Amino acid sequence: METSLGVLMLVVLLNSESRASSLENDTGLNFVVAFPENIAYYHATNPQNSLKILALYPDTTVKVKIEPNNVTTLQMSSGEDRDFLLHFIPQLELGKSNITNQTLHISSDKWITVQVISSKKNSLQTSLVIPTENLSKEYYIPPVPTIKGTTEPKDTVTRTVTERGPFRLVIINSDKPNTVTVEGKHTQDISLNPGEAAQVWLNPDDELRVVKAGEPVSVLFGHSCAMVKDCTCGLVYTVLPPATDQTQTFIVPPQLAPVDEKDTFILLSEKDSTKVEDFKADSPKVSVDGTAVLYRPGLLLRLIPESDFSSCYHITSIPNMNNFAVIVTHKDSTEKVYVGQESKKGADWKSLKDTDYVSTQVPLPSGRNTIWHASSKMAVYFLGQNNVSLVGNPAAAISKHSDLRGCVLSPEVVRIGEDTQGWRESREYCENMNLDLVSFSKTKHQQQVLKMLNKANTDNLKKVWIGLRRSSLTGDWYWLDGDPVNNTNWGQDEPGRVDEGQCAAMSLESSKNGAWRDEDCCEDLHPVCHKKTVLLQ
Q1: Which of 38, 72, 271, 366 satisfies CB 3.0 to 4.6 Å to 235 for a cystine?
Q2: Could you tell me the residue range of the domain that residue 82 belongs to?
Q3: Residue 267 to residue 252: CA distance in whole angstroms
Q4: Which of these three, 242, 265, 298, is where a domain ends?
Q5: How far apart are CA 350 and CA 263, in angstroms?
Q6: How far is the C-alpha of 354 from the C-alpha of 356, rounded, in Å?
Q7: Which pLDDT score, from 0 to 100, does residue 412 have?
Q8: Beta-bridge mates of residue 265
Q9: Range in 41-45, 99-103, 122-126, 518-522 with the lowest mean pLDDT
């Protein structure tokens, strides 16, 4: 029997392996990478550069192309984190050339994330690579921080001395011919072939403000050997985010800065202006019509705007370092923050003044770490430190969809069917949409689905079919997905005798709390169709 009830789609159906790319996370199918000059290209020590690649799905094929005839193929499983070493190709590190083809390309048939590690002697930096699907044609250039012995005094900045050289941009082109304009007082026009990268030195008198390109590019900002302390210098750089003229709010946790906050700045860049603000732990909220980067000695860190907070992140610890996650979340949801399967409710959460947020820094074990929120969104940063190096980058955002069971790759789908039918016909109805009648063997999952149904039940339905029925052979109840029937929610005096109702319906009446009852399988009810959440393994 058909009714006029419209279809209620509670969560957009996403195929777990072929979704449209979006700016909501750091996963993608294609990446282009360049390794900035570290200390100096002519340094006696060869670079020890590498990639960290995370596969999200089973049977993932990844190809790393260093040159047209130098392609390495990796076969990866779901959740596998692979180090790809590039020690044997020192020429991949950029030198002083304005234009170079020293780039490499990573492609995959399923979604992955890519982190870059640039290492030479005691100079080490990490960065999270933006997928080419998410690159932009426009970027705002941050102001250059004041670094004694590197950019200060200004009249000592020179390209002939490594540690006193100017900051630079590295503009990496993807797979199409491109024209790039770096706008400012002394505008520069650059032509790039596919796979080429351009280096632009940020001389103070040039007042360069914006990078604009005919085709999407990636842009790095940094210095090959900025002074850190004790007359030592090291590589600092970050991947710039795409430009935006929307007002962005950044919540800057104090754990990102040294204890004394000395020489820590927020570099703000907008369409027509830049500004350097001192970092202040008692003023964690920063707003700008553009982008923000944190600088502290030894580190440039792209900040995560509130609009880009996500529900799941990935961090792989770096050997021989103390590894940390810095987490920002709403003050009322700390108990739902997990690292792996461990809740961080008991972590040392600090209130962030004049906001509803709190933050903490938690140590990370070696290997792969999944950091996820069971009901909301958060910001997560990676920091690593040893006696000589400080590294950091935004953690790789995997998903903006939260779930009480783990890190979501493809969100749960719950759909109230538009037709009233018997239980068997209702199951066929769901299967025709590549769904099934809902099975929820865990109490928390039952509550999660019921909450979604109650929110969408604008037609005030009283009860609906679920994927639970009685075996004609044994008389026992079973879930369609094969899970055991342990955590039940039968109503009073339910279920009846074995010769009574053979199929289960769930109440949507507010007073019944989703209670079940057995029903005649021929009764006409609306079905709850369902597709399971796909979680990162």
Answers
A1: 38
A2: 25-242
A3: 12
A4: 242
A5: 22
A6: 7
A7: 86
A8: 278, 295
A9: 41-45
